[in-house]
Amino acid sequence: MSATELSGSIVLGKRKRVQRAPELVLHLSGGSRSSSPAFTTSEHEAGESDHVSGIGSSSKSRGPIIVNGKLVCGDQKRYRCIFAGCNKAYKKPSRLQEHERSHTGERPFVCSTCSKSYLRESHLQAHVRTHMPASARPLVCQVDGCEKRFWTNQHLKFHEKLHFDEKPFKCTHAECERSYSKQSQLRAHIASVHCPPGTKSFRCEHSNCEKSFATSQKLRAHVKTHDEKRYTCVHPSCTQTTELMYFGTWSALQSHNRKAHPATCPYAACSGRTFSAQKGLRAHLKIHEQREIEDALLLRGDGEDCEDGDDVGRERKRRRGGEVGRDWMCDVAGCEKDFKSNKALMTHQKVTHLQRRDFVCTHIGEDGACGLAFGYKHLLQRHVAKMHAHQSTDDDPAAIVGGVEEGHQYSAIDVLTGKAYADRASATVATGRSVRCPFPDLSAPLVSTGRMHGHETEATEGGARERTCEYAFTRAYDFRRHLAAAHNVDVGKEDVEKWVLGRK
Protein backbone atom coordinates (compact mmCIF):
# COMPACT_ATOMS: atom_id res chain seq x y z
CA MET A 1 0.00 0.00 0.00
CA SER A 2 1.41 3.35 -0.99
CA ALA A 3 1.88 6.30 1.23
CA THR A 4 -0.86 8.11 -0.63
CA GLU A 5 -3.34 5.39 0.16
CA LEU A 6 -2.29 5.35 3.82
CA SER A 7 -2.78 9.07 4.15
CA GLY A 8 -6.29 8.77 2.75
CA SER A 9 -7.32 6.04 5.19
CA ILE A 10 -6.11 7.69 8.43
CA VAL A 11 -8.84 9.32 10.61
CA LEU A 12 -7.78 11.70 13.37
CA GLY A 13 -10.04 11.69 16.48
CA LYS A 14 -10.46 14.39 19.14
CA ARG A 15 -7.92 14.45 21.91
CA LYS A 16 -9.42 13.35 25.21
CA ARG A 17 -9.60 15.99 27.92
CA VAL A 18 -7.01 15.39 30.58
CA GLN A 19 -8.46 15.43 34.10
CA ARG A 20 -6.12 17.20 36.46
CA ALA A 21 -5.85 16.52 40.13
CA PRO A 22 -7.30 19.26 42.35
CA GLU A 23 -4.55 21.49 43.64
CA LEU A 24 -4.28 23.74 46.67
CA VAL A 25 -3.30 27.02 45.04
CA LEU A 26 -2.71 30.38 46.74
CA HIS A 27 -4.26 33.23 44.73
CA LEU A 28 -3.16 36.78 45.49
CA SER A 29 -5.40 39.66 44.42
CA GLY A 30 -3.77 42.30 42.27
CA GLY A 31 -4.03 46.12 42.37
CA SER A 32 -7.83 46.21 42.54
CA ARG A 33 -9.98 44.54 45.17
CA SER A 34 -12.31 43.16 42.59
CA SER A 35 -9.82 42.11 39.94
CA SER A 36 -9.87 38.46 38.97
CA PRO A 37 -7.17 36.44 40.77
CA ALA A 38 -4.55 34.87 38.55
CA PHE A 39 -4.82 31.08 38.62
CA THR A 40 -1.51 29.19 38.50
CA THR A 41 -1.51 25.72 37.03
CA SER A 42 1.28 23.32 36.15
CA GLU A 43 1.68 21.89 32.67
CA HIS A 44 1.23 18.13 32.21
CA GLU A 45 2.59 16.08 29.38
CA ALA A 46 0.23 14.07 27.24
CA GLY A 47 1.82 10.85 28.43
CA GLU A 48 0.70 11.43 32.02
CA SER A 49 -3.01 11.39 31.16
CA ASP A 50 -3.63 7.90 32.51
CA HIS A 51 -2.09 8.73 35.87
CA VAL A 52 -4.01 11.99 36.27
CA SER A 53 -7.37 10.65 35.13
CA GLY A 54 -7.42 8.19 38.01
CA ILE A 55 -7.41 10.95 40.62
CA GLY A 56 -10.73 12.69 41.17
CA SER A 57 -11.82 12.37 37.55
CA SER A 58 -15.48 12.90 38.44
CA SER A 59 -14.93 16.09 40.53
CA LYS A 60 -14.86 19.54 38.96
CA SER A 61 -14.63 21.53 42.20
CA ARG A 62 -11.70 23.81 42.75
CA GLY A 63 -9.57 23.91 45.84
CA PRO A 64 -9.71 26.71 48.43
CA ILE A 65 -8.33 30.09 47.43
CA ILE A 66 -7.68 33.40 49.17
CA VAL A 67 -9.97 36.19 47.91
CA ASN A 68 -9.58 39.69 49.37
CA GLY A 69 -7.55 38.35 52.25
CA LYS A 70 -9.99 35.53 53.20
CA LEU A 71 -9.77 31.78 52.60
CA VAL A 72 -12.77 30.69 50.49
CA CYS A 73 -13.71 27.08 49.71
CA GLY A 74 -16.08 25.68 47.11
CA ASP A 75 -17.33 26.96 43.79
CA GLN A 76 -20.45 28.91 44.86
CA LYS A 77 -20.11 32.68 45.35
CA ARG A 78 -16.56 32.82 46.57
CA TYR A 79 -16.07 36.50 45.73
CA ARG A 80 -17.44 38.41 48.71
CA CYS A 81 -17.82 42.15 49.27
CA ILE A 82 -15.36 43.49 51.85
CA PHE A 83 -17.25 46.65 52.75
CA ALA A 84 -18.42 46.78 56.36
CA GLY A 85 -21.99 45.61 56.87
CA CYS A 86 -22.33 44.08 53.38
CA ASN A 87 -22.60 40.30 53.02
CA LYS A 88 -23.03 40.11 49.25
CA ALA A 89 -21.13 37.37 47.39
CA TYR A 90 -20.79 36.50 43.71
CA LYS A 91 -19.49 33.73 41.50
CA LYS A 92 -17.46 35.99 39.23
CA PRO A 93 -15.11 38.85 40.06
CA SER A 94 -16.76 40.98 37.38
CA ARG A 95 -20.06 40.80 39.25
CA LEU A 96 -18.29 41.77 42.46
CA GLN A 97 -16.74 44.74 40.70
CA GLU A 98 -20.16 45.89 39.52
CA HIS A 99 -21.54 45.58 43.03
CA GLU A 100 -18.67 47.52 44.65
CA ARG A 101 -19.53 50.51 42.51
CA SER A 102 -22.72 50.86 44.56
CA HIS A 103 -20.48 51.50 47.62
CA THR A 104 -17.92 53.77 45.96
CA GLY A 105 -20.40 55.76 43.87
CA GLU A 106 -18.43 55.16 40.66
CA ARG A 107 -20.63 55.35 37.52
CA PRO A 108 -18.30 54.75 34.57
CA PHE A 109 -20.95 54.15 31.89
CA VAL A 110 -22.11 57.53 30.56
CA CYS A 111 -24.76 58.19 27.91
CA SER A 112 -23.33 60.18 25.01
CA THR A 113 -26.69 61.83 24.35
CA CYS A 114 -27.85 63.12 27.74
CA SER A 115 -24.72 62.52 29.92
CA LYS A 116 -26.56 60.28 32.41
CA SER A 117 -24.26 57.76 34.11
CA TYR A 118 -24.87 54.20 35.32
CA LEU A 119 -23.22 51.50 37.40
CA ARG A 120 -23.54 48.75 34.80
CA GLU A 121 -23.20 48.62 31.05
CA SER A 122 -26.51 46.75 30.77
CA HIS A 123 -28.24 49.67 32.49
CA LEU A 124 -26.71 52.06 30.00
CA GLN A 125 -27.84 49.91 27.08
CA ALA A 126 -31.38 49.87 28.43
CA HIS A 127 -31.27 53.66 28.81
CA VAL A 128 -29.91 54.24 25.30
CA ARG A 129 -33.06 52.60 23.92
CA THR A 130 -35.13 55.49 25.26
CA HIS A 131 -33.42 57.79 22.74
CA MET A 132 -34.31 55.50 19.81
CA PRO A 133 -37.60 55.68 17.87
CA ALA A 134 -40.44 53.21 18.55
CA SER A 135 -39.92 51.67 15.11
CA ALA A 136 -36.55 50.31 16.24
CA ARG A 137 -38.16 47.98 18.81
CA PRO A 138 -37.83 44.41 17.48
CA LEU A 139 -40.80 42.69 19.20
CA VAL A 140 -44.27 43.36 17.74
CA CYS A 141 -47.63 42.42 19.24
CA GLN A 142 -49.25 39.70 17.10
CA VAL A 143 -52.84 40.55 18.02
CA ASP A 144 -54.87 41.82 15.07
CA GLY A 145 -55.17 45.59 15.00
CA CYS A 146 -52.39 46.12 17.55
CA GLU A 147 -49.03 47.27 16.23
CA LYS A 148 -47.30 48.13 19.48
CA ARG A 149 -43.60 47.27 19.67
CA PHE A 150 -41.40 46.39 22.64
CA TRP A 151 -37.75 45.92 23.49
CA THR A 152 -38.04 42.86 25.74
CA ASN A 153 -40.07 39.68 25.65
CA GLN A 154 -41.21 40.31 29.21
CA HIS A 155 -42.90 43.59 28.25
CA LEU A 156 -44.46 41.95 25.20
CA LYS A 157 -45.98 39.10 27.23
CA PHE A 158 -47.34 41.49 29.82
CA HIS A 159 -48.93 43.56 27.05
CA GLU A 160 -50.54 40.52 25.43
CA LYS A 161 -52.28 39.66 28.70
CA LEU A 162 -54.16 42.93 28.47
CA HIS A 163 -55.81 41.76 25.26
CA PHE A 164 -57.20 38.67 27.01
CA ASP A 165 -58.44 40.70 29.98
CA GLU A 166 -56.10 39.06 32.49
CA LYS A 167 -55.95 40.95 35.78
CA PRO A 168 -53.27 39.42 38.02
CA PHE A 169 -53.20 42.23 40.62
CA LYS A 170 -55.97 41.55 43.14
CA CYS A 171 -56.96 43.67 46.11
CA THR A 172 -55.93 42.06 49.40
CA HIS A 173 -58.48 43.84 51.60
CA ALA A 174 -61.27 41.78 53.12
CA GLU A 175 -64.58 41.66 51.23
CA CYS A 176 -62.99 43.32 48.19
CA GLU A 177 -62.74 41.24 45.02
CA ARG A 178 -61.47 43.91 42.64
CA SER A 179 -58.52 43.03 40.42
CA TYR A 180 -56.47 45.06 37.97
CA SER A 181 -54.07 44.52 35.13
CA LYS A 182 -51.46 46.96 36.46
CA GLN A 183 -49.87 47.47 39.84
CA SER A 184 -50.36 51.23 39.60
CA GLN A 185 -54.11 50.75 39.17
CA LEU A 186 -54.24 48.58 42.29
CA ARG A 187 -52.34 51.19 44.33
CA ALA A 188 -54.71 53.92 43.16
CA HIS A 189 -57.72 51.74 44.10
CA ILE A 190 -56.42 51.07 47.62
CA ALA A 191 -55.63 54.76 48.19
CA SER A 192 -59.03 55.99 47.03
CA VAL A 193 -61.30 53.24 48.47
CA HIS A 194 -59.60 51.72 51.50
CA CYS A 195 -57.72 54.77 52.86
CA PRO A 196 -58.77 58.16 54.28
CA PRO A 197 -59.67 60.89 51.75
CA GLY A 198 -56.67 62.59 50.19
CA THR A 199 -54.40 59.57 50.46
CA LYS A 200 -51.97 59.22 47.56
CA SER A 201 -50.84 56.04 45.83
CA PHE A 202 -47.50 55.53 47.62
CA ARG A 203 -48.02 55.30 51.37
CA CYS A 204 -45.38 55.21 54.07
CA GLU A 205 -45.44 51.86 55.92
CA HIS A 206 -43.59 53.19 58.97
CA SER A 207 -45.48 52.91 62.25
CA ASN A 208 -47.36 56.06 63.32
CA CYS A 209 -46.72 57.68 59.94
CA GLU A 210 -49.72 58.47 57.75
CA LYS A 211 -47.96 60.35 54.96
CA SER A 212 -48.45 59.39 51.33
CA PHE A 213 -46.86 60.53 48.09
CA ALA A 214 -47.65 60.68 44.38
CA THR A 215 -44.42 58.99 43.23
CA SER A 216 -42.17 56.23 44.51
CA GLN A 217 -39.17 58.55 44.34
CA LYS A 218 -40.74 60.94 46.85
CA LEU A 219 -41.66 58.00 49.07
CA ARG A 220 -38.07 56.71 49.08
CA ALA A 221 -36.80 60.15 50.00
CA HIS A 222 -39.33 60.34 52.85
CA VAL A 223 -38.50 56.88 54.23
CA LYS A 224 -34.95 58.08 54.87
CA THR A 225 -36.27 60.54 57.46
CA HIS A 226 -37.26 57.60 59.69
CA ASP A 227 -33.64 56.44 59.86
CA GLU A 228 -32.26 57.57 63.22
CA LYS A 229 -28.69 57.13 61.92
CA ARG A 230 -29.15 58.98 58.66
CA TYR A 231 -26.55 61.66 59.47
CA THR A 232 -23.38 61.46 61.55
CA CYS A 233 -21.03 64.13 62.84
CA VAL A 234 -17.63 63.94 61.10
CA HIS A 235 -15.89 66.51 63.30
CA PRO A 236 -12.55 65.10 64.60
CA SER A 237 -13.61 65.53 68.22
CA CYS A 238 -16.68 63.35 67.58
CA THR A 239 -15.09 60.72 65.33
CA GLN A 240 -12.32 59.98 67.84
CA THR A 241 -14.81 58.79 70.46
CA THR A 242 -15.82 55.16 70.84
CA GLU A 243 -19.42 55.82 69.76
CA LEU A 244 -20.28 58.02 66.81
CA MET A 245 -23.05 60.58 67.13
CA TYR A 246 -25.98 60.03 64.78
CA PHE A 247 -28.89 62.31 63.92
CA GLY A 248 -32.16 61.59 62.18
CA THR A 249 -32.52 64.97 60.45
CA TRP A 250 -30.18 67.45 58.79
CA SER A 251 -31.41 70.28 61.04
CA ALA A 252 -30.52 68.25 64.14
CA LEU A 253 -26.98 67.73 62.83
CA GLN A 254 -26.60 71.44 62.06
CA SER A 255 -27.89 72.35 65.51
CA HIS A 256 -25.32 70.00 67.03
CA ASN A 257 -22.52 71.58 64.97
CA ARG A 258 -23.52 75.09 66.03
CA LYS A 259 -23.50 74.16 69.72
CA ALA A 260 -20.64 71.65 69.95
CA HIS A 261 -18.42 72.86 67.07
CA PRO A 262 -19.16 76.55 66.46
CA ALA A 263 -17.38 78.40 63.69
CA THR A 264 -14.28 79.86 65.39
CA CYS A 265 -11.83 82.45 64.14
CA PRO A 266 -8.32 80.88 63.98
CA TYR A 267 -6.50 84.21 64.53
CA ALA A 268 -5.01 84.70 68.01
CA ALA A 269 -6.00 88.38 68.05
CA CYS A 270 -9.68 87.37 68.13
CA SER A 271 -9.22 85.13 71.21
CA GLY A 272 -11.38 82.31 69.85
CA ARG A 273 -14.28 84.44 68.65
CA THR A 274 -17.16 82.27 67.50
CA PHE A 275 -19.93 82.76 64.94
CA SER A 276 -23.39 81.26 64.66
CA ALA A 277 -22.86 80.31 61.00
CA GLN A 278 -20.02 79.64 58.60
CA LYS A 279 -21.17 82.58 56.49
CA GLY A 280 -20.34 85.00 59.29
CA LEU A 281 -16.93 83.41 59.80
CA ARG A 282 -16.09 83.69 56.09
CA ALA A 283 -16.97 87.38 56.08
CA HIS A 284 -14.88 87.88 59.22
CA LEU A 285 -11.86 86.07 57.77
CA LYS A 286 -12.07 88.28 54.70
CA ILE A 287 -11.45 91.28 56.96
CA HIS A 288 -8.32 89.63 58.35
CA GLU A 289 -7.04 88.95 54.85
CA GLN A 290 -7.57 92.55 53.78
CA ARG A 291 -5.79 93.83 56.88
CA GLU A 292 -2.82 91.59 56.18
CA ILE A 293 -2.61 92.88 52.61
CA GLU A 294 -2.72 96.49 53.79
CA ASP A 295 -0.05 95.87 56.44
CA ALA A 296 2.18 94.26 53.82
CA LEU A 297 1.75 97.24 51.49
CA LEU A 298 2.64 99.67 54.28
CA LEU A 299 5.78 97.71 55.16
CA ARG A 300 6.90 97.82 51.52
CA GLY A 301 6.31 101.56 51.41
CA ASP A 302 3.62 101.42 48.78
CA GLY A 303 1.35 103.83 50.63
CA GLU A 304 0.54 106.94 48.65
CA ASP A 305 1.21 110.38 50.04
CA CYS A 306 -0.63 113.56 49.22
CA GLU A 307 1.20 115.66 46.63
CA ASP A 308 -1.28 118.51 46.02
CA GLY A 309 -0.58 122.07 47.19
CA ASP A 310 0.45 122.45 50.80
CA ASP A 311 -0.09 118.76 51.60
CA VAL A 312 3.14 117.60 49.93
CA GLY A 313 4.83 114.91 52.02
CA ARG A 314 1.94 114.51 54.40
CA GLU A 315 0.70 110.94 54.80
CA ARG A 316 -2.73 110.27 53.32
CA LYS A 317 -5.44 109.67 55.90
CA ARG A 318 -6.51 106.04 56.02
CA ARG A 319 -10.18 105.47 55.38
CA ARG A 320 -12.36 103.45 57.69
CA GLY A 321 -12.27 99.82 56.60
CA GLY A 322 -9.03 100.23 54.66
CA GLU A 323 -8.32 100.57 50.99
CA VAL A 324 -8.27 96.89 50.00
CA GLY A 325 -11.49 95.24 48.80
CA ARG A 326 -13.27 98.33 47.48
CA ASP A 327 -14.61 96.61 44.38
CA TRP A 328 -17.91 98.48 44.06
CA MET A 329 -17.43 101.67 42.04
CA CYS A 330 -20.01 104.42 41.61
CA ASP A 331 -20.86 104.71 37.90
CA VAL A 332 -22.27 108.23 38.07
CA ALA A 333 -20.27 110.66 35.92
CA GLY A 334 -17.83 112.68 37.98
CA CYS A 335 -18.12 110.48 41.08
CA GLU A 336 -15.05 108.41 41.87
CA LYS A 337 -16.15 106.92 45.17
CA ASP A 338 -15.75 103.20 45.80
CA PHE A 339 -17.22 100.88 48.41
CA LYS A 340 -16.75 97.43 49.93
CA SER A 341 -20.29 96.15 49.37
CA ASN A 342 -23.14 96.61 46.96
CA LYS A 343 -25.39 97.70 49.83
CA ALA A 344 -23.08 100.61 50.69
CA LEU A 345 -22.96 101.61 47.03
CA MET A 346 -26.77 101.59 46.72
CA THR A 347 -27.09 103.70 49.90
CA HIS A 348 -24.57 106.21 48.54
CA GLN A 349 -26.41 106.57 45.24
CA LYS A 350 -29.82 107.03 46.91
CA VAL A 351 -28.59 109.63 49.39
CA THR A 352 -25.99 111.52 47.32
CA HIS A 353 -27.23 111.36 43.74
CA LEU A 354 -30.99 110.81 44.18
CA GLN A 355 -31.22 113.12 47.21
CA ARG A 356 -33.43 110.71 49.14
CA ARG A 357 -34.04 111.48 52.82
CA ASP A 358 -35.91 108.50 54.31
CA PHE A 359 -35.26 109.17 58.03
CA VAL A 360 -37.68 111.88 59.24
CA CYS A 361 -37.79 113.31 62.74
CA THR A 362 -41.25 112.77 64.21
CA HIS A 363 -40.72 114.79 67.38
CA ILE A 364 -43.59 117.12 68.24
CA GLY A 365 -42.67 120.17 70.33
CA GLU A 366 -44.21 123.47 71.29
CA ASP A 367 -43.74 124.79 67.76
CA GLY A 368 -45.27 121.70 66.16
CA ALA A 369 -43.66 118.77 64.40
CA CYS A 370 -39.94 118.97 63.64
CA GLY A 371 -40.14 117.26 60.24
CA LEU A 372 -36.41 117.38 59.43
CA ALA A 373 -35.29 114.55 57.16
CA PHE A 374 -31.92 112.83 56.99
CA GLY A 375 -30.28 110.40 54.64
CA TYR A 376 -28.76 108.20 57.35
CA LYS A 377 -30.22 106.84 60.58
CA HIS A 378 -27.28 107.87 62.75
CA LEU A 379 -27.74 111.49 61.66
CA LEU A 380 -31.36 111.37 62.82
CA GLN A 381 -30.32 109.94 66.19
CA ARG A 382 -27.67 112.65 66.59
CA HIS A 383 -30.26 115.32 65.74
CA VAL A 384 -32.75 114.00 68.33
CA ALA A 385 -30.08 113.91 71.03
CA LYS A 386 -28.91 117.47 70.34
CA MET A 387 -31.98 119.45 69.38
CA HIS A 388 -34.74 117.85 71.45
CA ALA A 389 -32.87 117.00 74.66
CA HIS A 390 -34.52 119.86 76.65
CA GLN A 391 -38.03 118.67 75.67
CA SER A 392 -37.90 115.23 77.34
CA THR A 393 -40.95 113.65 78.92
CA ASP A 394 -40.00 111.33 81.75
CA ASP A 395 -43.61 110.32 82.34
CA ASP A 396 -43.93 108.67 78.90
CA PRO A 397 -41.96 105.39 78.86
CA ALA A 398 -42.90 104.81 75.23
CA ALA A 399 -40.65 107.73 74.23
CA ILE A 400 -37.59 105.49 74.54
CA VAL A 401 -36.57 104.53 71.00
CA GLY A 402 -33.46 102.60 69.98
CA GLY A 403 -31.52 103.29 73.19
CA VAL A 404 -32.08 107.08 73.01
CA GLU A 405 -34.76 108.42 75.32
CA GLU A 406 -36.26 111.74 74.40
CA GLY A 407 -34.59 114.24 76.65
CA HIS A 408 -31.82 111.89 77.71
CA GLN A 409 -28.80 110.48 75.95
CA TYR A 410 -27.23 107.43 77.53
CA SER A 411 -23.51 107.47 78.05
CA ALA A 412 -21.14 104.67 77.21
CA ILE A 413 -20.96 103.77 80.91
CA ASP A 414 -24.75 103.36 81.03
CA VAL A 415 -24.65 101.04 78.04
CA LEU A 416 -21.76 98.96 79.41
CA THR A 417 -23.23 98.62 82.90
CA GLY A 418 -26.66 97.69 81.57
CA LYS A 419 -28.50 100.76 82.87
CA ALA A 420 -29.69 101.69 79.38
CA TYR A 421 -31.18 98.23 78.83
CA ALA A 422 -32.76 98.19 82.28
CA ASP A 423 -34.48 101.53 81.61
CA ARG A 424 -35.76 100.36 78.23
CA ALA A 425 -37.01 97.09 79.73
CA SER A 426 -38.81 98.92 82.53
CA ALA A 427 -40.46 101.23 80.01
CA THR A 428 -41.72 98.42 77.77
CA VAL A 429 -42.98 96.41 80.77
CA ALA A 430 -44.85 99.47 82.06
CA THR A 431 -46.61 99.91 78.73
CA GLY A 432 -47.53 96.21 78.57
CA ARG A 433 -45.52 95.55 75.42
CA SER A 434 -43.21 93.04 77.13
CA VAL A 435 -43.00 90.81 80.20
CA ARG A 436 -40.13 90.47 82.64
CA CYS A 437 -38.51 87.13 83.38
CA PRO A 438 -39.88 85.98 86.77
CA PHE A 439 -36.90 83.78 87.66
CA PRO A 440 -36.33 82.51 90.33
CA ASP A 441 -39.97 82.98 91.39
CA LEU A 442 -41.43 80.56 88.85
CA SER A 443 -45.10 79.64 89.19
CA ALA A 444 -47.57 77.52 87.26
CA PRO A 445 -47.64 76.84 84.38
CA LEU A 446 -43.87 77.51 84.28
CA VAL A 447 -43.04 74.16 85.89
CA SER A 448 -39.45 73.11 85.38
CA THR A 449 -38.81 69.69 83.87
CA GLY A 450 -35.08 70.16 83.46
CA ARG A 451 -32.06 70.90 85.55
CA MET A 452 -31.77 74.03 87.65
CA HIS A 453 -28.22 74.53 88.84
CA GLY A 454 -25.32 76.88 88.57
CA HIS A 455 -27.40 80.08 89.03
CA GLU A 456 -25.81 83.30 90.20
CA THR A 457 -26.49 84.22 93.81
CA GLU A 458 -25.98 87.41 95.76
CA ALA A 459 -25.08 87.65 99.45
CA THR A 460 -27.59 89.15 101.90
CA GLU A 461 -27.77 89.43 105.65
CA GLY A 462 -29.95 86.35 105.82
CA GLY A 463 -27.66 84.36 103.56
CA ALA A 464 -27.23 83.83 99.82
CA ARG A 465 -30.25 83.97 97.53
CA GLU A 466 -30.66 83.61 93.80
CA ARG A 467 -30.31 86.84 91.84
CA THR A 468 -33.46 88.21 90.21
CA CYS A 469 -33.42 88.21 86.41
CA GLU A 470 -33.80 91.65 84.80
CA TYR A 471 -34.45 90.60 81.19
CA ALA A 472 -37.72 91.45 79.45
CA PHE A 473 -39.24 89.88 76.33
CA THR A 474 -42.02 90.66 73.89
CA ARG A 475 -42.23 87.17 72.32
CA ALA A 476 -42.91 83.87 74.03
CA TYR A 477 -40.37 82.22 71.71
CA ASP A 478 -37.52 84.45 72.97
CA PHE A 479 -38.60 84.03 76.59
CA ARG A 480 -38.62 80.22 76.31
CA ARG A 481 -35.11 80.18 74.78
CA HIS A 482 -33.91 82.50 77.55
CA LEU A 483 -35.20 80.16 80.26
CA ALA A 484 -33.39 77.20 78.71
CA ALA A 485 -30.10 79.01 78.00
CA ALA A 486 -29.75 81.25 81.06
CA HIS A 487 -31.55 79.28 83.79
CA ASN A 488 -31.53 75.66 82.56
CA VAL A 489 -35.32 75.58 82.81
CA ASP A 490 -37.15 73.54 80.19
CA VAL A 491 -40.79 74.58 79.78
CA GLY A 492 -43.29 73.47 77.16
CA LYS A 493 -44.06 75.81 74.28
CA GLU A 494 -47.79 75.97 74.99
CA ASP A 495 -47.19 76.67 78.70
CA VAL A 496 -44.91 79.61 77.91
CA GLU A 497 -47.35 81.12 75.41
CA LYS A 498 -50.18 80.78 77.91
CA TRP A 499 -48.11 82.49 80.64
CA VAL A 500 -47.03 85.39 78.39
CA LEU A 501 -50.56 86.04 77.17
CA GLY A 502 -51.76 86.14 80.76
CA ARG A 503 -49.21 88.80 81.70
CA LYS A 504 -49.75 91.16 78.73
From TrEMBL:
Gene Ontology molecular function terms on file: DNA-binding transcription factor activity, RNA polymerase II-specific; RNA polymerase II cis-regulatory region sequence-specific DNA binding; zinc ion binding
Lineage: superkingdom: Eukaryota
Statement: the UniProt record of this protein carries the keyword DNA repair: no
Localization, UniProt: Nucleus
Bias-annotated ranges (Basic and acidic residues): 42-51
Protein name from the UniProt record: C2H2-type domain-containing protein
Pfam entry (one): zf-C2H2
Spans traversing the lipid bilayer: none
Compositionally biased residues, Polar residues: 31-41
